[in-house]
Amino acid sequence: MNNLVDPKGVDGTAPIRELARWTLEDQSAWTTPLIVKQTKLLILDSIACAIAALDVQTPSRVATMLDTLGGNPMCSIVGKPEKTSILSAVLMNGALVRSLDFNDVQFFLKEGKLSVAGHCSDNIPAALASAEHLGVSGLKTIEAIAMGYEMFGRLRNLMPFSSAWDGTSVSGMIAAAMYGRLAGFDLERQANALALAAIRCATPSVVRWGKLSGAKNLANAFIAQSGVQAALLAELGITGPQEVLEHRGGMHQVFDPDLGFENLWTPVTDPHFVMTSCIKPYACIGTAQTTIAAALALHPKVKDRVDRIARIQIIMADLPMIRKQQGEIYRQFPKTREAADHSFTFLPAVAMAEGAMTDAQFRDRRWEHADMTRLIDVTELSVDPDLAARAPGSMPSRIVVSFDDGRTVEQECLFHPGHSFPDKGLDEEVVNEKFEEIARFRMDENLILRIQDAVMGFEASDANALMHPLREIG
User: Fold this and answer.
1) Taken in order 38, 39, 40, 43, is the CA torsion positive or negative?
2) How far apart are the first and last CA of the chain?
3) 441: Cβ–Cβ under 8 A, 6 or more apart, which residues?
4) What fold characterizes domain 14-276?
5) Is the Cβ–Cβ distance between 187 and 212 less than 8 Å?
6) What is the pLDDT of residues 272-287, one digit of tens each?
7) Among 7, 65, 173, 433, which is 20 to 30 Å from 265 by CA?
8) Which ranges in the chain are annotated with CATH 3.30.1330.120?
9) What are phi and psi for residue 168, nearest 5 degrees?
């Protein structure tokens, strides 16, 4: 036992060990019918996001690298018939799930204001690869994923709103914790896994701001891969600095002890964080989902008069996160795909003009076409405190379009179709519609149904049965 006690009698290993204990606990909450269903729907949505990204540049380049490296064939990659190593599967599937900014999003209260917590499904690939590697049951995998979601929310609450560190920094310990839980680690190995993961997890927030690069899509996959690697090393007896949370030379800049480490291991209460997870009906930033819904509703009213639009007003919830994102000049006038799918000016313009928001709206650098640059130039961004007050837990929007003849049309959206209400969860029909719309371009109806059945029956099978049909995708 690695108890490091400082001269004042404080056990520096206590926080990481208490967190490790919590991650290993049996929790009846993780297997309630509502949480099992919600977790399966999030798995299906993550698979849809991975399928949609099979031809996208960033994951394609990751695939090229992994083909060069090779790997022990134990775990599946979406869209590849051959298996690879667990670490390669975590990286590759993580890149696929994240690359279109199409996977789930969570909001939480930060300093009294609703903010984006992150994208918990970034870590579903780590859980599935770990489960396939270890050969554990689907139900145990569902438990580990639900635990990982809850851990995500708790760790994010220890990161100040103005942190210099990106929210994906929480994922190293989450990936390690999920592997350790699935592998049946004892407390000592789990604490070492978390400690080893923690020392590799810190990621600067520049990956999410400024001139957005391909690193935005890989940040979490890098960290999750490192977290699983840490757990594999702990499994072999490698120890980590268990005082990593408590020590001043540890993670204080990332996880603020003044925000209460003890909140990491308190009993689970409603609403469980996994129940707050919203899916994205549209392939873009989570804070723009209601804006896109409003823009799509406006399409029939503006499609024949797009060239006569004189002004577009995008009014969003008055929240610090929204103000910060609206102020990013690189998003207002995007130059890259990564900036375009985060742009509050381009996204509603293309959705209103084309009546869709899929990967197709980003092909051929659509944001640089003359009709789009004109609409971007006449778009004004603002906030309204009343919107947030009328839609708690959401990022609502209103769009007002003015034409050159003085006429106007407007549309408001308080909750988009993929919003999850904590007492009900996701709309199963919406999740399946998204999956089917993406999948039908890559596979026949039989394979679509097999994948849906494998996911929705996951608690009675295992990860190998779930991943097998994903290797058949052409």
Assistant:
1) positive
2) 50
3) none
4) 2-methylcitrate dehydratase PrpD (1.10.4100)
5) no
6) 999 999 999 998 999 9
7) 7
8) 286-413
9) -65, -10
